[in-house]
Each structure stands twice: as C-alpha cells, then as structure tokens.
Automatic annotation (TrEMBL):
CDD domains: SAICAR_synt_PurC
Similarity section: Belongs to the SAICAR synthetase family.
Swiss-Prot/TrEMBL catalytic activity: 5-amino-1-(5-phospho-D-ribosyl)imidazole-4-carboxylate + L-aspartate + ATP = (2S)-2-[5-amino-1-(5-phospho-beta-D-ribosyl)imidazole-4-carboxamido]succinate + ADP + phosphate + 2 H(+)
Protein name: Phosphoribosylaminoimidazole-succinocarboxamide synthase
Keywords: ATP-binding, Ligase, Nucleotide-binding, Purine biosynthesis
Pathway named in the protein's UniProt entry: Purine metabolism; IMP biosynthesis via de novo pathway; 5-amino-1-(5-phospho-D-ribosyl)imidazole-4-carboxamide from 5-amino-1-(5-phospho-D-ribosyl)imidazole-4-carboxylate: step 1/2
Superkingdom: Bacteria
Source organism: Kandleria vitulina DSM 20405
Pfam families: SAICAR_synt
Domain SAICAR synthetase/ADE2 N-terminal: 7-232
GO molecular function: ATP binding; phosphoribosylaminoimidazolesuccinocarboxamide synthase activity
GO process annotations (BP): 'de novo' IMP biosynthetic process; cobalamin biosynthetic process
E.C. designation(s): 6.3.2.6
NCBIfam families per record: purC (TIGR00081)
Amino acid sequence: MELGKLLYDGKAKQIYETENENEIIMHYKDDATAGNGVKHDQFAGKGILNHTISGIIFDMLEEAGIKTHLIKKLSDTDDLVKKVEIFPLEVIVRNITTGSFCRRTGCQEGLVLEEPIFEISYKNDEYGDPLINEDHAVAMSLCTREEYAKIKASTLKINELLKEFFLSLNLKLVDFKIEFGKTADGEILLADEISPDSCRLWDVNTNKKYDKDVFRQDIGDLIETYKAVLARMENK
Ligand code: C5P
C-alpha cells in the first residue's frame, strides 16, 4: 500500500494518510528516546522488533475481547490502523513500584502492589507530561467522565491479560503505558503500541530488565534485549 502524506512524525513512530479517510498507516521507526527526548539514539532493527512484539500483543488482546485500532499488518514496520483522535493521556498501570512513582514519592523500589495503581498523565511535552487525575482531565476537556471510566476499566482488564501473558514468558509486568483513541463514531479503541519501549519487564527469577530501561540507564544492549523478549514470545 502506498504511503500518503506524512501526518505526524513522533519520537518512535510516523503516521501517514491513506486514500481512506478512516484509516491511517502507522510506521515504526528505529529511534529510541528517553527523558522526554533529551536522550536520543537510533538502533537498526528496533522498528521491526517493536512492530512484531506489539503485533503479537495486540492480536492476543483482540482475541480476549479488547477493541484495538489495528486493522492489518502491511510490512515488517507498518500497520494499517483505524484513524482515531488520540486522548492526550498517557495511561499508566503499576504492579511493582519503580520509576517516576518512586522518584516522585520516595516510595521504596520493587514493592509488589496488592492492587495495581492506575495513573494518567497529560500528554504534553512542553509541560513534561504532568501527572493529573480524573477531575483535571475532565476540567481540561481531555476526556469526559464516562470516557475516563471506560478507559480505566479497559486498562485494568488489559493489565490482567498482559500480566498473565508476560508471566507465561517468565517476565513480571512491572508497569506500562498505553494510549486510547476515539473513532469518528465515538468508539474508544486501544491505540499506539505495547512493546518493551512502553512496558517494564523483569525476569521472574533474576529481576534482569528486559525493556527500555537498558537504554535509559545504559545497562545493556537494546536490540539484544528486545530480541530476547521476542524470542520468549516465539518459543511460547
Ligand atoms: O517513568 P515512569 O515510571 O512513569 O513510567 C511508567 C511506565 O510507563 C514505564 O513502563 C514506561 O516505559 C512507560 N512510559 C512510556 N512513555 C512515557 C512515560 C512512561 O512508555 N512517556
């Protein structure tokens, strides 16, 4: 399929127009960024790895009844997806404490939470994606209260499905970020990607990190790490 006009050039993905106004093409780039773009590098093959990993996860979620934007894979790096208006929210779930939660609160690292923590941040680079709550999101017209409730319920279901999926790969789902969008008909769909860029994954036995923290913290080879995640999926 021909790529149409470039509509959006993001940190790790590009969005292209298609001939159908309700469909767009999502292209995975080889770029990795951290710290709101402060740290930036390119890794040959990263786009293919994240596209493949995210595709397997989205297919699993669809089979479990989660509605996603994915229509079909077009190539190693490109998907045809439903055009949605993305809610400007980073929707985050934490099962084990680490990352910005510990930095912000001083909470001990590595606590296994009895109940997942559900968080939203306002997706806005200029303000550093600030943590907000439901009232803020509604007051700022980022979503309605009803949409917030649907997003939260769907996210907690996705957390359960992802936790079980990764556990079957001997990986603990520490936390993750997802994004939702709304179609012209008002249907809320899981959008964007789910990959080691957007999840923290720790080996069940060793707590070794299998995610973008290896790049953020300079503690490992990103491509080898992501290949290892994909290998666990393919050997399942
Ligand atoms: O940095 P923080 O601890 O808030 O990240 C929580 C989770 O959300 C991590 O899995 C991280 O990879 C993901 N995240 C993301 N994109 C962001 C912020 C966080 O994918 N802009």
